[in-house]
Design brief:
heterodimer; A: 132 residues; alpha/beta; Rossmann fold; 5-stranded parallel sheet; 5 helices; 5 strands; B: 327 residues; 7-stranded parallel sheet; 42% helix; globular
Chain lengths: 132, 327
């Protein structure tokens, strides 16, 4: 049996807009991955703890509140602190173009804005799951 | 594959390192070991052999019942209650795998968010990966890992079961069957299957009303088994009602198992099932491999299809069983 790709989809921060996260979770499921969805209003600490216990290959963070510059890098920082820097982090949501280079510098592998084709998102997590 | 950072690469033998860290209470090691087991990696067998002597302390409670009845929410509350009583709690929550794509959305954690970063709690979501019966093949090996991690209690949530997913009762020390009001008439509680396996029954969502009828029907049907009369507990998980009573009932059942020697009996019947299951898996694997055994199997398959042999006799020949005598 080939190793299953496991992904955590999480919503850090206080906005309640989870349609995007759910659409992505569904697309990854249909691509044969195991998706752990943790629901709304998670702290970076909650997300990192869940990612470690679930032994995921990657985390998808969705934020539409504008707090991504604080919350996304915090997740990467905590993962490194917990010796789990091998878990890749992707971001999505309403994120201004100008912030993307800064997020990448902070360790977010990729940022998916509105209108990203689902196949691009699936392709990223498939590569992440193969340890590339 | 490049060596991953952290625990696994510290030792040349990843299993030794992981097991050592697990026994020290390291959650990351527990998580990695569960993945090895789930993916059926060759190292998993060795790891489980080393873990097994360090297990047997945790009390294992299974939760079953229809989808949406509130199993995850009950477990969420129960974890908090047991934490308040100083117990460490592990959870393995099973959800179904898609029969078409092999994928799964595991959503039990959403309702278990209250315990977040509590160091005395470990929650693992698990997909069935094609196994029927409401559990995954790896579920009880994962329970073993959490037992060795030092959890006092391990709560296992089955996939939303229908009327006959009863496997959990053959594995857990205590089985909780969760029902809710307004889901059928008295005849529903008379049916065989899921309503026979509980050590504790929960009527959840009592805030919806009409719970008295179901509680009365359940009490009417339930009979003492092995000298234990299953209690019926009323709860409203979202409001936290009845959770203390449920925890008390589980403590009473654990004590009952110890006092009567039933715990030992249940452990032995579980061991029987586990040995048989593993033997079946080994046999399947031998048949798949391109060995001499696999070739004999393929030849037999052709012979059976061409009506030169029959499947019952073929199976006996494969296992070197003598022909069956009438007894």
């Amino acid at each position: 049996m080939p190793k299953k790709i496991r992904v955590l989809i999480a919503k850090p921060g206080l906005d309640g807009h989870d349609r995007g996260a759910k659409v992505v979770a569904r697309a990854l499921r249909d691509a044969g991955m195991e998706v752990i969805y943790t629901g709304l209003r998670q702290t970076p600490e909650d997300i990192v703890e869940a990612a470690i216990q679930e032994d995921v290959d990657a985390i998808g963070l969705s934020c539409l509140s504008g707090a991504h510059m604080t919350l996304f890098p915090e997740v990467v920082k905590l993962l490194k602190k917990r010796k789990s820097g091998d878990i890749l982090v992707a971001g999505g949501g309403i994120i201004p173009e100008a912030d993307i280079p800064k997020l990448k510098k902070a360790g977010i592998k990729i940022v998916f804005g509105p209108g990203t084709p689902l196949r691009d998102i699936v392709a990223f997590f498939e590569t992440a799951g193969k340890g590339a | 594959m490049p060596a991953r950072k952290g625990t696994a690469s510290r030792s040349r033998d990843p299993v030794t390192g992981l097991v050592r860290d697990l026994l020290k209470g390291d959650k990351r090691a527990a998580a990695k070991l569960i993945s090895l087991i789930e993916d059926d990696e060759p190292e998993a067998t060795e790891a489980l052999a080393r873990i097994h002597p360090h297990t047997g302390r945790a009390h294992v409670v299974g939760f079953t019942g229809p989808p949406g009845v509130g199993k995850s929410s009950l477990i969420n509350r129960l974890v908090r209650t047991f934490r308040g009583r100083g117990k460490k709690v592990g959870v393995v929550a099973v959800d179904p795998t898609s029969p078409y794509t092999g994928g799964a959305v595991l959503g039990d954690r959403i309702r278990m968010a209250d315990t977040g970063v509590d160091p005395g709690v470990f929650i693992r979501s698990m997909a069935t990966r094609g196994h029927a019966g409401g559990l995954a093949l790896a579920t009880f090996d994962a329970v073993r890992v959490l037992d060795a991690l030092g959890m006092d209690l391990v709560l296992v949530e089955t996939v939303g079961a229908g009327q006959s997913e009863v496997e959990i009762a053959t594995r857990a020390h205590s089985t909780v069957v969760v029902e809710m009001p307004m889901t059928g008439d008295a005849v529903q509680t008379m049916k065989a299957g899921i309503l026979e396996i509980g050590d504790v029954y929960v009527v959840n969502k009592v805030d919806l009303g009409n719970a008295d009828v179901l509680v009365a029907n359940l009490k009417f049907q339930l009979e003492p088994r092995d000298g234990w009369r299953p209690p019926v507990i009323r709860t409203a998980a979202l409001e936290g009602r009845g959770i203390g009573e449920l925890a008390d009932a589980l403590d009473r059942h654990a004590k009952f198992l110890d006092d009567t020697g039933l715990r030992k009996k249940r452990e032995i019947s579980r061991a029987r099932l586990e040995i048989l299951e593993n033997a079946q898996r080994l046999l399947s694997r031998r048949v798949e491999a391109g060995s001499g055994f696999g070739r004999t199997f393929e030849t037999m398959a052709k012979e059976v299809a061409e009506r030169r042999f029959d499947p019952h006799s073929a199976a006996r020949k494969l296992l070197h069983e003598p022909p069956r005598e009438s007894d």
